[in-house]
Write a structure and sequence with these properties.
Keywords: Hydrolase
Radius of gyration: 15 Å
CATH superfamily: Nucleoside Triphosphate Pyrophosphohydrolase
CATH topology: Nucleoside Triphosphate Pyrophosphohydrolase
Order of helices and strands: EEEEEHEEEHHE
Number of domains: 1
InterPro entries: Nudix_hydrolase (IPR020476), NUDIX_hydrolase-like_dom_sf (IPR015797), NUDIX_hydrolase_CS (IPR020084), NUDIX_hydrolase_dom (IPR000086)
Family: Belongs to the Nudix hydrolase family.
Cofactor: Mg(2+)
Strand order of the largest sheet: 5-1-7-6-9
Helix content: 10-25%
GO molecular function: hydrolase activity
Largest sheet: 5 strands, mixed
CATH architecture: Alpha-Beta Complex
Strand content: 35-45%
Shape: globular
Amino acid sequence: MADLNPNVLPYAEQLRVRVCGICIEDNKLLLVRHGKTVDNEAFWAPPGGGLQFGESMRACLVRELQEEAGVQVQVKRFLFVNEFLHPPLHAIEFFFEVQLTDGTIITGTDPEAASDKQLIEQVEWLTIKQIQQLPLQDKHQALRHLFSLDDLLGMKHTFKA
């Protein structure tokens, strides 16, 4: 059985639709470090979150970047879709290129989670070298086999690791 953080339980055993942003500036990628999720010590991933009923993907991404990182973004082009399947977590994730338009990076919160059940621990700009040095199980599968940050902008439209 998977080693599951109890704070992840609200997201378990259901299919979620998520929208995520790829934001690259000065050869660094904006990433969110979540606390332990499933079978890891931390989980680094691009910012993003769950699509709400009636919400467009672009509106979701703008909202999520504001909540998680305290910034305003312009949503650019669609990049790829990913199936995240690590039972009991399952999500279909749509990735878009985003560009910062306003704000200063902060470590935000998830308004759906109580203050003592937050998963977001850190929001940082990481270089490709820093990403490559993270333990494999501690980074999102879209980050696991990168040779450069530009690889994220030219991925096939669909993949599953």
